[in-house]
């Protein structure tokens, strides 16, 4: 202490300077505090001590400015949600072959040997949900879609909970084959994702809303997924946003052969179970002579592409069936069968004989390795293009043997020889004739082939048919 005083006494000028600066600093600090108290909107006419308390109290309890900022940002995000036409007419010419016109601003998720799909919310959607507005049944450009974050959905939006399956197809959901092609990718997606089932369906055709499937397809999806709501957007033009959504717009698309087989195996299994069928051991039936039982089904249709003379065709195959011991001929009219009747008929069919048409999609319910014989009217070979091979493709995808096809060579000439489309339309709904010699030889050959195959199968101990479904 004494040392310190001596230092200070010996250096009076520096010591005084330090004291002066310190006092000046304290004075200025006090003035600033008083000024802030007087200028503060929280100040009052109370005593300086209470005013100071009020200032520090308010300083420690200011409104959370981040809350206001967040609300402002949410409002801006909500207002910035932009709805685009579901159907983009710029891509109308490439809707089947290239860029799709349905939700054209979005890119599909691509996985090896899987159908292309869109999933919301996802990394690709930056965590945003899919929202759809509009229920126009005739013009897809009047329906629209947008992406929105869950915290900033559009005003008046309805949030639809659960998993929504959104489908758009170039064809339709009434035809058995086209409808199956549109739904198969959803079945595959479900199989890959712990057999998740949809809460609802949202169906579009060219961006136009559909509110129902054909009866056959509806029953098939019921068998696979159980009861599922068909969304009709009953609030009109108000936006609907989906908690989770899977969108398909390319039908089977790039799905690989092995995955197609898995899908059709599951659908076959589910349909049989739904209809109360358990064909364990199918394909190993042996008749009293020790030969295999072969079931030959004539699956007929009425109207377009039906046989001109059904009786003659039935007689041809009946004669060939009679030549093979153990062959059982069954004649059925597809239009007269319920869904489960069709499942049952085809479950117990080894060979199906049928004109080209949607009814052939029922081959789905036959065991793998079963045989398909297909017949066409005059003009289809020359003018139908690739579409005539649809059931050939399906037989391959479902594990069947497509035994070839017969195209009727007899019929009127096309009156529009230079117009391919008009010629196809001229022949499209024609009826199918017959060639007794060819039909008999062809039928006999297929029956013999199936007989040998079933003998070989019967000698094996492995049961190939199971009623245990994957999902």
UniProtKB/TrEMBL annotation:
Major subcellular location class: Golgi
Membrane topology, as annotated: Single-pass type II membrane protein
Any GO MF annotation of the entry: pentosyltransferase activity
Residue span(s) of domain Glycosyltransferase 61 catalytic: 294-373
Pfam family, any one: Glyco_transf_61
Annotated localization: Golgi apparatus membrane
Keywords from the named record: Glycoprotein, Glycosyltransferase, Transferase
A GO cellular-component term linked to this record: Golgi membrane
InterPro entries associated with the record: Glyco_transf_61_cat (IPR049625), Glycosyltransferase_61 (IPR007657)
Name assigned to this protein: Glycosyltransferase 61 catalytic domain-containing protein
